[in-house]
């Protein structure tokens, strides 16, 4: 490491020059576009840091307002996403300045990082606005798919080069600074999702959903509805292996998930004999008087009830989850007006293990759903996901009857075979063709087959075929 430098070699720690704020913004602009900045170009003070945060909030509000119009509402929780930049920038600045023995420059580096973040974030917003006029462009598709990754890579590279120049480090220091900022500056954003929206439209459907769910009769009806549906489940006659079905439609603001889960449940009752052993948990304002809502708690209660009725070592559970998904591999359970526990791969695995159900077929239809596979792996489990861990899936519109995956797997492939595994292989090219026709990158559906589950499913399949054969 280079020897410590004197205070005269460091950026000015405090400045009250009238144009200091604009100088800091200019330094952020030059930093974002990899242009040279001088060691004295940052004017560091707590006031300058606060002004950058306020400017970020003002720009975010203006951007939201322009997109939404005056018919919107202020969203207070977006402030948390904006303020997250401050501790992240301070942590990254501390790491760089401590490693290269420049502690006096901590505030200057933090301000440079914040200014660079500001420029990069709103450069991407501006680019997105320009691309709105070119809906079919490849650049638009790449930006829609990888904007999060583009932001982080751009941020790390630009800030690393700027830190080297600001602190007058030698060029070989770029590598260590880059690695440090990847950990301290970029990594926190991959682990914590914070919405920055400050002004959002009032969705009539969402507002109606909240009103429906909060209506007094529904408030008291929902617990009774869940208990009633659980009580109506039966073990069924006979000693042969049986299939149980649990469907979960997680996102209330779009009907496609409700439609899909209802269709699949009806098909399983008809095709695979799950009538009396199937249940749908649905988040949707149109179903609050007919179906229990989907939450971690209602899922756990449903799994526990099915486990009571099942021979947990012989019977098979088919668990179908349909909703949106996030980069951090959380499955969206959302109904306006409600606060649900988070459903992620680890919590889903824990719920299944608590129930004691051994033989599991799990289908997760959501963006980034491939991230569920590793946590759900057992020898007695078949896991299928609509997308790879780093890919989005498609078809989540309010008007659609199915997502792309749901259409291909349940409505097309599973109509040709009783094998859940064969249906997945049949569905993959159908999904790929549909995505390609729309110019989308393949969602790359994934599958894991435990070493024991294949034999168990073959026994079930033989039972399905036998029941279809006409009596002699």
Structure write-up:
With 472 residues, the chain is an alpha/beta fold. 52% of the residues lie in helices and 9% in strands. It has helices at residues 20-32, 46-68, 78-83, 85-99, 106-131, 138-166, 174-191, 204-214, 216-232, 255-271, 296-309, 345-355, 373-376, 404-412, 420-437, 453-468, and strands spanning 72-74, 199-201, 243-249, 278-282, 316-322, 359-365, 381-385, 446-449. The strands form 2 sheets. The chain has a 6-stranded mixed sheet with strand order 4-3-5-6-7-8, sandwiched between helices. A two-stranded antiparallel sheet has the order 1-2.
Key descriptive features of the protein:
single chain; 472 residues; alpha/beta; 8 strands; elongated
Task: Indicate the topology.
Layout lengths: L19 H13 L13 H23 L3 E3 L3 H6 L1 H15 L6 H26 L6 H29 L7 H18 L7 E3 L2 H11 L1 H17 L10 E7 L5 H17 L6 E5 L13 H14 L6 E7 L22 H11 L3 E7 L7 H4 L4 E5 L18 H9 L7 H18 L8 E4 L3 H16 L4
Parallel strand pairs: 3-4, 3-5, 5-6, 6-7
Antiparallel strand pairs: 1-2, 7-8
Helix pairs in contact: 1-5, 2-5, 4-5, 4-7, 5-6, 6-7, 11-12, 14-15
N-to-C SSE string, H for helix and E for strand: HHEHHHHHEHHEHEHEHEHEHHEH
Kindly state the mean pLDDT as a whole number? 86
Structural class: alpha/beta
Shape: elongated
Helix content: 40-55%
Radius of gyration computed on alpha carbons: 27 Å
Widest beta sheet: strand line-up? 4-3-5-6-7-8
Terminal residue distance? 87 Å
How many beta-strand elements? 8
């Amino acid at each position: 490491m280079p020897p410590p430098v004197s205070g005269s070699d460091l950026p000015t720690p405090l400045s009250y020059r009238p144009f200091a704020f604009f100088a800091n913004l200019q330094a952020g602009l030059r930093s974002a576009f990899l242009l040279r900045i001088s060691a004295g170009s940052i004017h560091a003070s707590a006031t300058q840091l606060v002004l950058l945060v306020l400017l970020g909030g003002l720009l975010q509000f203006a951007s939201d307002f322009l997109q939404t119009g005056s018919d919107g509402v202020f969203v207070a929780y977006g402030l948390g996403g904006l303020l997250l930049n401050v501790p992240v920038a301070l942590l990254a600045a501390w790491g760089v300045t401590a490693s290269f023995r420049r502690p006096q420059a901590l505030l200057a580096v933090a301000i440079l990082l914040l200014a660079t973040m500001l420029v990069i974030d709103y450069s991407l917003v501006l680019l997105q606005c320009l691309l709105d006029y070119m809906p079919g462009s490849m650049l638009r598709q790449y930006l829609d798919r990888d904007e999060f990754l583009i932001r982080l890579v751009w941020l790390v590279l630009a800030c690393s080069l700027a830190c080297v120049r600001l602190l007058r480090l030698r060029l070989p220091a770029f590598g260590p600074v880059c690695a440090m900022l990847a950990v301290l500056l970029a990594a926190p954003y991959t682990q914590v999702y914070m919405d920055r929206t400050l002004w959002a439209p009032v969705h009539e459907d969402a507002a109606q959903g909240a009103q429906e769910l909060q209506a007094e009769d529904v408030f008291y009806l929902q617990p009774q509805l869940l208990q009633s549906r659980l009580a109506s489940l039966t073990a069924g006659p006979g000693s042969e292996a049986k299939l149980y079905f649990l469907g979960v439609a997680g996102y209330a603001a779009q009907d496609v998930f409700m439609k899909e889960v209802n269709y699949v449940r009806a098909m399983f009752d008809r095709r695979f004999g799950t009538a009396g052993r199937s249940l749908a948990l649905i988040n949707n304002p149109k179903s609050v008087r007919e179906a229990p809502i989907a939450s971690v708690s209602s899922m756990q209660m449903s799994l526990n009830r099915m486990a009571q009725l099942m021979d947990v070592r012989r019977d098979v559970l088919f668990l179908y989850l349909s909703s949106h998904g996030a980069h951090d591999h959380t499955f969206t359970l959302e109904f306006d007006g409600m606060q649900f526990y988070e459903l992620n791969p680890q919590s889903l695995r824990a719920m299944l293990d608590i129930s004691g159900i051994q033989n599991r077929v799990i289908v997760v239809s959501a963006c980034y759903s491939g991230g569920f596979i590793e946590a759900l792996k057992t020898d007695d489990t078949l896991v299928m996901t609509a997308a790879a861990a780093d890919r989005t899936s498609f078809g989540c519109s309010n008007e659609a009857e199915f997502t792309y995956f749901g259409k291909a797997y349940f409505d097309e492939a599973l109509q040709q075979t009783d094998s859940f595994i064969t249906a997945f292989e049949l569905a993959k090219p159908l999904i790929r063709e549909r995505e390609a026709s729309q110019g989308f990158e393949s969602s790359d559906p994934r599958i894991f087959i435990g070493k024991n589950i294949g034999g168990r499913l073959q026994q079930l399949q033989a039972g399905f075929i036998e029941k279809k054969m006409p009596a002699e």
